[in-house]
Write a structure and sequence with these properties.
Blueprint lengths: L3 E4 L4 E4 L7 E6 L10 H19 L3 E8 L15 H9 L3 H18 L7 E4 L4 H13 L3 E4 L2 E4 L9 H4 L23 E5 L19 E2 L1 H13 L3 E7 L3 H16 L5 E7 L2 E3 L2 E2 L10 H6 L4 H9 L7 E3 L1 H24 L15 H14 L4 H13 L5 H15 L3 H7 L5 H17 L3 H13 L2 E6 L2 E6 L1
Parallel strand pairs: 3-4, 3-10, 4-5, 10-11, 12-14
Antiparallel strand pairs: 1-2, 6-7, 7-8, 8-9, 12-13, 15-16
Bound molecules: adenosine monophosphate (AMP) and zinc ion.
């Protein structure tokens, strides 16, 4: 089976093939660092992580780019309200930079606790102003802009494909205006590329530009930075479902106007929202749950990851503590099952990367891959993990080795669960591997013996053969 992803742009699942065979350029919209991420935001990043890990598992080399928004994102997505960063800095009596640094660090602490891999490139908006100015120049040279009231606007009337991301979703009407109040706009959907003499007098961060001293519109950073790091056309762009009608729609308009190339991005992936009591969780309302608040309530961050993986990323997910309890209990059962198997398995299981080709373990691993290939089905992938752990026809070693392999994508802490179990402590594991290497050497299977030595070396453990046998130490 091939990887199939639901493409918002085409409104259907499509077989994924990258522009360059074997390589994937992926851009996921990053956080606006004016406050902690709420658990809804973190759903978006767990989704990106699931995508990246799946792509890598399937053999693609992925360049994952994520922006950090530290300027220009207004409280309204459509050019209204204050700059979120400036507002937050004012409320806290700090500089914008201090606030940005603090919450960027907090964000990565959260993502680390959720075992989300760091993107290949993390780029800050404020460090890419020159790229944004250059992109606006190109948009301007192509004839898509006008100046009014001190701002430079994008003229959507000049872009015939405007709104295709929204139009392509069934039941949606074309992008609706939530503005209607900015008299400078020729069309209510026009948006600001560069603010100069605007109403945002408190803007702390401004830069010189051909259009006057000011600062960029929010949508610009994603176009400019993704093009910079991934090229003028790339494979996948993702974000929350709320970004479809304005942010991503405007990103497409800007990028395609500047480069003249279509489609700018071939696959658009959108995660549905995490909701509480049917309401949207909003970072700007100040009232929201963070990962830390779940930890303070006694949950492990990975309980929350399990909870998220238990729902498909395109289904709305209702948060409740009862539901989170369910995920915690499931993770406890997982740990118990892993420990039970670890006590029975020979410690060498950790080194059994490739299952017996005729065995059942391989079928589970293939079914696991198929689940991921089917538009990243977390629930089905979890079911395959449980399937192999409970199957009496699969040996403990095969089950554990497969669980560890699946956990490269799921990232639920299988390795630690097994090590805590006592049966498969690291020391025992290393010593069992040394014994296995000794046996391999005796049997003149030097390939195997060397493979074991190299595998240990890759983990920072070196072996020293002496007359008293093999000793090991950490590098
Ligand atoms: P922000 O930091 O506000 O720019 O949002 C970061 C990411 O979280 C974006 O991709 C949003 O679309 C996404 N997002 C915001 N709220 C939620 C939610 N309640 N559930 C899932 N994703 C969300
Ligand atoms: Zn974006």
């Amino acid at each position: 089976m091939a990887l199939t992803l639901f493409n918002t742009l085409k409104r259907e699942p499509q077989i994924f093939e990258p522009l360059t065979p074997g390589k994937v350029g992926f851009y996921g919209c990053g956080p606006t660092v004016y406050n902690n991420a709420h658990i809804g935001n973190l759903r978006a990043y767990v989704t990106h992580d699931l995508l990246v890990k799946t792509l890598r598992r399937l053999g693609f080399e992925v360049t994952h780019v994520m922006n950090i928004t530290d300027v220009g994102h207004l409280t309204g997505d459509d050019d209204f309200g204050d700059d979120k960063m400036v507002k937050s800095a004012g409320e806290r009596g700090k500089s914008v930079l201090e606030v940005a640094n603090y919450y960027t660090e907090a964000f990565f602490k959260d993502t680390e606790r959720l075992r989300i891999d760091r993107p290949t490139v993390v780029c800050r908006a404020t460090e890419h102003i020159a790229d944004m100015i250059e992109l606006i120049r190109r948009i301007e040279a192509a004839g898509f802009t006008y100046a009014a009231g001190g701002n430079l606007y994008y003229d959507v009337g000049k872009f015939p494909h405007y709104g295709e991301l929204t139009l392509s979703r069934s039941g949606d009407s074309p992008v609706r205006s939530r503005t209607g109040q900015d008299e400078n706009k020729r069309n209510p959907q026009d948006f600001v590329l560069w603010f100069t003499k605007s109403k945002f007098e408190r803007q702390a961060l401004t830069w010189d530009s051909p259009w006057g001293r000011g600062y960029p519109g929010w949508h610009l950073e994603c176009s400019a930075m993704s093009i910079k790091y991934l090229g003028e056309q790339f494979d996948i762009h993702a974000g929350g479902i709320d970004h479809v009608p304005i942010h991503h729609t405007n990103e497409i308009a800007q990028s395609e106007a500047a480069t003249g190339k279509r489609p700018w991005v071939r696959f658009w992936l959108h995660n549905e929202f995490l909701v509480i009591d049917k309401g949207k969780m909003s970072k700007s309302s100040g009232e929201f749950l963070t990962l830390q608040s779940l930890v303070d309530a006694g949950y492990d961050p990975l309980d929350y990851r399990y909870f998220l993986l238990g729902a498909h990323y395109r289904s709305q997910l209702q948060f409740s503590y009862e539901a989170l309890d369910g995920a915690r209990n499931a993770r406890r059962s997982l740990r118990d099952r892993i420990r039970f198997l670890a006590k029975r398995a020979s410690p060498v299981w950790m080194n059994r990367d490739v299952p017996d080709p005729d065995g059942k373990a391989l079928q589970y691993r293939e079914a696991f891959n198929r689940a991921l290939e089917d538009d990243l089905s977390g629930p089905r992938a979890l079911a395959e993990l449980w399937g192999i752990l409970r199957d009496p026809e699969v040996t403990a070693e095969e089950a554990l080795a497969s669980a560890l392999d699946m956990d490269r994508v799921l990232s639920l802490g299988v390795r630690e669960m097994a090590l805590e179990g006592g049966g498969g402590g690291e020391r025992e594991e290393i010593e069992a591997l040394i014994a296995e290497r000794g046996a391999a050497k005796k049997a003149r299977d030097f390939t195997r013996a060397d493979a074991i030595r190299d595998a240990l070396k890759a983990r920072g453990i070196v072996l020293e053969d002496g007359k008293d046998g093999t000793l090991w130490r950490r590098l």
